[in-house]
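To the wet lab folks,

You asked to see what we're planning to order before we commit. Fair enough. Below is the target structure as tokens, and below that is the sequence we designed to fit it. If anything looks off to you, flag it before the synthesis order goes out.
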């Protein structure tokens, strides 16, 4: 049995608690938040036996083996290092930290402690992504030549910290585009160079509580990725689209056909070269988050090799930083720093 402390009672905590609920070897022992009421309300909804505003005590409980961190970006490093130093495994909500140097310090702490470290990239565990990855490996599209990746939402309206440069320095790229960066590397390989443009097109936002806040970060970004030995990728990121995408949209084009994910053709559709129309494969139905958290727990129990999402967390920040450098240089081609 893996005892878990969840730190952070924001909206993404529901996804993780729901994903863990059907896994008998996982027991969420306590939820910790800055406010006792939020922790207690969340614990009550998910049947977690304890709630606290003492984060340090929750991390160091003797019945806790792993810590799941779902707090704002600028708190990730301190909490992850604290948990790893205490000998706990860590699953850290994306982005891994505010910059790549902080990511490296977290990885160093994990190495010193000998503890498992993972970063939550939920999109790679969606059924259509798992199926598409298998199809690509089997050559369903032939040699992939180009990819179009889109991540777009209306933007968060529940907290002002999303729009502050001192808390989310990369704006839409690090908050939303980071999902697409990881998905591209997960499916096609390492991004070695980028050319990008970013902009703040809506300089003020109204939050759901009525406050008007200034937007200090980019809310729109377009990037072109060069993949080592792979396709050319165009990535569009927006936090100002009222319709947006259903999590993401990906179009994959190859010499023998195309694959579309989360488009008007459904979660996954394929079209062979010279064929007529689209084929929609059957996808198994699983509970949201179950596949991801099942793999995490199995890795901690030694049943499967742990995934390497800790390194993926660093990789995605290195790409995000290359996007920022390219945009600052008017879109000039920029090399992604190596691990």
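Sequence we intend to order:
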């Amino acid at each position: 049995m893996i005892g878990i402390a969840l730190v952070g009672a924001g909206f993404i905590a529901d996804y993780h608690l729901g994903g863990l609920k059907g896994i008998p070897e996982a027991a969420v022992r306590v939820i910790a938040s800055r406010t006792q009421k939020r922790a207690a309300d969340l614990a009550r909804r998910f049947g977690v036996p304890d709630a606290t505003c003492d984060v340090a005590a929750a991390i160091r409980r003797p019945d806790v083996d792993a810590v799941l961190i779902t707090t704002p970006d600028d708190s990730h490093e301190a909490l992850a290092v604290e948990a790893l130093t205490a000998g706990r495994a860590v699953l850290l909500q994306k982005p891994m930290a505010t910059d790549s140097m902080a990511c490296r310090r977290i990885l160093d702490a994990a190495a010193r402690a000998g503890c498992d470290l993972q970063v939550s990239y939920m999109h790679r565990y969606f059924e259509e992504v798992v199926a598409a990855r298998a199809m690509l490996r089997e050559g369903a599209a032939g040699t992939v030549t180009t990819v179009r990746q889109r991540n777009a939402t209306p933007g968060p309206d529940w907290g002002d910290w999303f729009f502050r440069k001192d808390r989310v320095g990369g704006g839409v790229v690090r908050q939303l585009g980071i999902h697409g960066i990881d998905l591209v590397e997960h499916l096609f390989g390492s991004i070695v160079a980028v050319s990008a443009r970013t902009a703040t097109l809506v300089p003020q936002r109204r939050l759901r509580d009525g406050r008007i806040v200034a937007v200090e970060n980019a809310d729109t970004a377009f990037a072109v990725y060069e993949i080592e030995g792979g396709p050319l990728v165009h990535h569009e990121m927006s936090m100002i689209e009222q319709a947006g995408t259903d999590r993401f949209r990906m179009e994959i084009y190859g010499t023998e056909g195309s694959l579309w994910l989360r488009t008007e053709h459904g979660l996954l559709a394929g079209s062979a070269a010279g064929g007529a129309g689209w084929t929609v494969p059957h996808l198994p139905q699983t509970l949201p988050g179950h596949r991801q958290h099942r793999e995490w727990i199995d890795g901690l129990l030694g049943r499967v090799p742990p995934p390497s999402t800790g390194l993926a967390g660093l990789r995605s920040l290195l790409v995000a930083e290359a996007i920022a450098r390219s945009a600052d240089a008017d879109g000039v081609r920029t090399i992604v720093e190596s691990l």
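Structural context that might help your review: Residues 85 and 121 are 23 Å apart (CA to CA). Residues 309-328 form the longest helix (20 residues).

Thanks,
Computational group
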